[in-house]
Design goal:
- The longest helix has 15 residues, at 121-135.
- Helix 1 crosses helix 5, helix 7 (173-184) crosses helix 9 and helix 8 (192-199) packs across helix 9 (209-222).
- The protein is an alpha/beta fold.
- It contains 9 helices and 12 strands.
- It has 2 domains: 2-135, Rossmann fold (3-Layer(aba) Sandwich), CATH 3.40.50.2300; 138-242, Orthogonal Bundle (Arc Repressor Mutant, subunit A).
Length: 246
């Protein structure tokens, strides 16, 4: 496991790169460092999990680039365990698998984005930057509006925190962005394509099923009965809406 050096002054954002191919890890790390990031590297699943769980300053990752095919523990399992441990750093999967089912499977476990191999290292850096921009939504006018409320749900844009029936609930960056968008437009119906365009980056190549997966995960976290949602409702043949009256 290796760490990127930091310069004096403001701390650099730390990106964890987990890949068992030394050339891939080296090149991606080089591009990230060139763009001002500190890099922590790991080459196996267990090493990646340990690095992703790090809490100490200078080692805790703000974003994670995670290969799916890893020795010791595959990337999907690493992703699942990180989310179970309430690690909210954006996770970008690196995968050679082209089937949509594999991509959606990773997103269903809590990943925020993916890049299919072979890829341009510059594209990976761009995805990392895009995810970190979304995490820092508190710098946008929409975030400065403060708390969004609907029924028994309160979303704090400044602190990026969610409370459901008075209890704190942990969301991934993309789950937060999607819920924020729907709550900011109460009772408006959006198609999956519209939500994909509004919440995901223009370069994201995933299909509308990505939205379905994230809606399901949000329902599991905010609804009393996810099978009978009262807030995140589907309008058959049209899309989804947030009902604030429940």
């Amino acid at each position: 496991m290796t760490h990127g050096a930091s310069l004096l002054g403001a701390p650099k954002p730390v990106v964890l790169v987990v890949d068992d191919e030394p050339i891939v890890a080296e090149v991606v790390g080089h591009y990230l460092r060139r763009d001002g990031f500190a890099v922590v590297s790991a080459s196996t699943g267990p090493e990646g999990l340990a690095a992703g769980l790090a809490k100490e300053a200078g080692s805790a990752p703000q974003a994670i680039v995670l290969d799916v095919m890893l020795p010791g523990m595959d990337g999907l399992e690493v992703c699942r365990r990180l989310r179970e441990a309430h690690v909210t750093a954006p996770i970008i999967l690196l995968t050679a698998r082209g089937e949509e089912a594999d991509r959606v499977g990773g997103l269903g476990l809590g990943a925020d984005d993916y890049v299919v191999k072979p890829f341009s290292p510059a594209e990976v850096v761009a995805r990392v930057k895009a995810q970190l921009r979304r995490v820092r939504l508190d710098t946008t006018p929409a975030a400065r509006d403060g708390a969004l409320r609907g029924g028994d749900i309160e979303l704090d844009s400044l602190q990026r925190q969610l409370k459901v029936r008075g209890q704190s609930v942990v969301l991934t960056a993309k789950e937060f962005d999607l819920l924020h968008y729907l709550m900011a437009h109460p009772a408006e119906v959006f198609s999956r394509d519209e939500l994909l365009d509004a919440v995901w980056d223009k370069g994201f190549v995933g299909g509308p099923a990505t939205v379905t997966v994230h809606i399901r995960r949000l329902r599991e976290k905010i609804e009393r009965d996810p099978s009978r949602p009262t807030h995140l409702k589907v309008v058959w043949g049209t899309g989804y809406k947030f009902d604030p009256s429940a």
